[in-house]
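Task: sequence design from structure.
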């Protein structure tokens, strides 16, 4: 993504987040921007290369430590206070080519709060487990199930971070030091 274009896209997404919050306040319903916001948040935070629009099967790529290109589906979930029970991850297309699924959790302001990753094998096993029509026929996992089979990629847990390292939070101009 070019720098100028990237800045312009981030500005458009900032405006979309504002509109989505306003729309929800007025109607009580979500505005359908969660997927796009999640893709750009994953790109911004993890440094992923976004795929072209309507790329079949995956939304982004990244190189692993061995230099292999990994194809990632990105799913977003807007988690608002008081509405956490029964939330589902969007449909995961098991017939397409992808290596892992990222779940970007967004707060009430559409800001990323966490990114989880689950590898293809674990996602396929969870989707084919008996018992749930939503899982088996619609390819949808609950957020809690996805978190259980996945691993947290961001933010890095505090116990893994050096205690004396300053951290610059997004949107802040001053550093804080973790305790």
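Answer:
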């Amino acid at each position: 993504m070019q720098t100028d274009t990237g800045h312009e896209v981030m500005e458009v997404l900032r405006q979309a987040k504002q509109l989505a919050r306003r729309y929800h306040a007025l109607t009580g319903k979500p505005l359908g921007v969660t997927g796009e916001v999640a893709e750009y948040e994953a790109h911004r935070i993890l440094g992923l290369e976004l795929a072209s629009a309507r790329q079949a099967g995956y939304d982004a790529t990244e190189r692993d430590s061995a230099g292999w290109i990994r194809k990632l589906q990105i799913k977003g979930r807007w988690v608002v206070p008081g509405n956490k029970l029964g939330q589902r991850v969007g449909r995961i297309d098991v017939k397409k080519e992808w290596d892992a699924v990222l779940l970007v959790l967004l707060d009430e302001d559409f800001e990323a709060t966490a990114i989880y990753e689950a590898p293809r094998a674990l996602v396929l096993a969870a989707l084919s487990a008996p018992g749930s029509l939503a899982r088996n026929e619609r390819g949808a996992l609950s957020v809690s199930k996805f978190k259980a089979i996945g691993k947290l990629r961001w933010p890095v847990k505090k116990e893994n971070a050096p205690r004396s390292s300053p951290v610059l939070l997004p949107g802040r101009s001053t550093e804080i030091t973790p305790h």
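The domain at 35-176 is CATH 3.40.210 (PvuII Endonuclease; Chain A).
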